[in-house]
Structure formats: structure tokens, C-alpha cells
Specification:
single chain, 299 residues, alpha+beta, Immunoglobulin-like, 2 domains, translocase, cytochrome-c oxidase, copper
């Protein structure tokens, strides 16, 4: 009994410590919002992320209500049918109405969750007939190419940005516009993932710009956000990163104009007052250089 009590106290102290440290790191208001408003759900930056958040919050409230009902029934049963003497209580073999209720009720709950999940999924994967912007994303081992097909550079080809082992590719997008991403893979299965989108989509080779390789989002917050490949695709999969740079619509138009005039990604970003290099992740060669330095220091 003492051992169990001691373990319970240690668990309570650990939970209290974790909550306290989390609260100090995030700030009281943000901590409260994340844990008791969003119920642990990350805060997204797109309309689609908000739809998924609403599904999560609704499901959490449903689970809390069902859990409270179950615990209330357990408590009622323990109290109502507690032992009152040595006489054996009346035995009941069947209760048909009760059996019908606890057979049908779970199906109703499952059907409700299924309905709202499918409804949210359809909303997130909805493709409009005329998006504001179209961006082609080409994945290859082990980097990314972003093409703006509705533009034309000095050579007549669409403006694009290609990542290398020494340069993180920056995908510049406008806020408050419907963005269609058309994904394609040059070799194996990759996965386009921006954590702040709360969404990822596998890039299936052989289905270039097909229905399964297309999705749309509307970004609502400016900023720099890391993007990654979320599908194990080979030796340097872990370094297959990119950065999403969300800017205002006016800045985006100026960026494309600068690119079409012949400026590179770095120069065009500097032209609109944005940092020319990625700030959310590090190129492969820099990582390897750091590893080599550490190894030499260790020797």
C-alpha cells in the first residue's frame, strides 16, 4: 500500500512539474489556450487547419461527455448495488431494453464521428475550379523544385527555385489567396509536409498533377515555416527540407515581378524586404561541415 502511495505521489509530482515547465515555456495565456481551448492541437496557419482543429475539439468534447457518463454510471452502480448483507441479491439473466441501448448507442457514436470526419476531410481536400495561384512542386532525391507555371522569366521559361545541398529552397506564397499545389516526383515516393499547415500529402511518382497529387490551402499568417519530406526516401531523406515564406499579396506580386526580370530567389526576396536565405532549417553541406568539425575536435 505504501509503495503504491509513493508511486502515485511521484506520478503526481512529475505531472505537476511537466505542466509547470510547459506553462513557463509558453506563457500562462498560451499554455491555457493550447491545453484547454485547443486540447493539445497545434495552431495552424491555414483555413484548412482551422477546420481540422474544429473536428479535434468537437471529438474531444464528445469523448469527455461520454467518459463522464460512463464514470457516473460506474459510480451509481457501485453505490446502488453495494453489499448490504449476506443475502444473495436477486439475479437478472437478461435486460433486453438495456442490451438494445448499449448495442445501438455505440453505432450512433461511430456514425457521428464518421460523418464529421468525412465532412472535414472533404473540406480539406476540396479543389476549386479557379484558384488564385498555382504552384508546381517537384520532388527528387533529395531536394525540391518549386515552379510558378503562370510566370515567364527572361528565357521564356517559368520562374522556379531549386534546392541544393548548400541552399535551402524557399517557397514564396501569398497570404489570403487560394493556393493550389500540384505535386510530382521524379523518382520515388516523397511527402510534402509543412507542419504549420497541419497537412501532408504523399508525392506519388507516375501521377504528375493528377487528382491524388493536388491540394489547396489558404494561408492566413505571414512568416517563415519549415517544410520537410515526411516519407523515408533514401540516404539523405532527413535533409530534404525547404522553407515556406508567406508574404502579403502585394509582396508576392513584387517578388514574381523581380524573378521575371531575371533576379534569383535571394535577390528577389531582398528586393521585397525579406531575408534572402532560409532561417528555419540548415542545408546539408553545412550540417556535414559541423559534423566534421565536431569529429575533428573529438579527435
Amino acid at each position: 500500500m505504501a509503495r503504491g502511495s509513493r508511486l502515485a505521489r511521484l506520478a503526481a509530482l512529475g505531472l505537476l512539474g511537466a505542466l509547470t515547465l510547459t506553462g513557463c515555456e509558453l506563457g500562462e495565456a498560451e499554455w491555457w489556450e493550447r491545453n484547454f481551448v485547443r486540447w493539445g492541437w497545434p495552431e495552424g496557419i491555414t483555413d484548412e487547419a482551422e477546420a481540422m482543429q474544429n473536428l479535434w475539439i468537437g471529438s474531444t468534447y464528445a469523448a469527455l461527455i461520454i467518459g463522464a457518463a460512463v464514470w457516473a454510471l460506474i459510480a451509481w452502480t457501485v453505490i446502488r448495488h453495494r453489499k448490504k448483507g449476506d443475502e444473495l441479491p436477486r439475479q437478472t439473466a437478461y435486460n433486453l431494453p438495456l442490451e438494445i441501448v448499449y448495442t445501438i448507442l455505440p453505432f450512433i457514436i461511430i456514425a457521428g464521428l464518421f460523418f464529421f470526419t468525412i465532412n472535414t476531410q472533404n473540406q480539406v481536400r476540396q479543389i476549386s475550379e479557379d484558384p488564385d495561384e498555382v504552384i508546381a512542386v517537384n520532388a527528387f532525391k533529395w531536394n525540391w523544385q518549386f515552379v510558378y507555371p503562370e510566370t515567364a522569366g527572361p528565357d521564356g521559361e517559368p520562374v522556379d527555385t531549386v534546392g541544393t545541398s548548400t541552399e535551402i529552397p524557399i517557397l514564396v506564397v501569398p497570404t489570403d489567396r487560394t493556393l493550389r499545389f500540384e505535386l510530382a516526383s521524379a523518382d520515388v515516393i516523397h511527402s510534402f509536409w509543412v507542419p504549420e499547415f497541419l497537412f501532408k500529402l504523399d508525392v506519388i511518382p507516375g501521377n504528375e498533377n493528377g487528382r491524388d497529387n493536388v491540394f489547396e490551402v489558404t494561408v492566413r499568417e505571414e512568416g517563415a515555416y519549415v517544410g520537410r519530406c515526411a516519407e523515408l526516401c533514401g540516404t539523405y531523406h532527413a535533409y530534404m527540407n525547404f522553407e515556406v515564406r508567406a508574404v502579403t499579396g502585394e509582396e508576392y506580386d513584387d517578388y514574381l515581378a523581380a524573378r521575371q526580370s531575371g533576379l534569383g530567389t535571394y535577390e528577389a526576396l531582398e528586393e521585397i524586404g525579406q531575408p534572402g536565405e532560409a532561417s528555419t532549417t540548415t542545408p546539408l553541406d553545412l550540417v556535414l561541415d559541423k559534423v566534421e568539425d565536431l569529429q575533428q575536435t573529438g579527435d
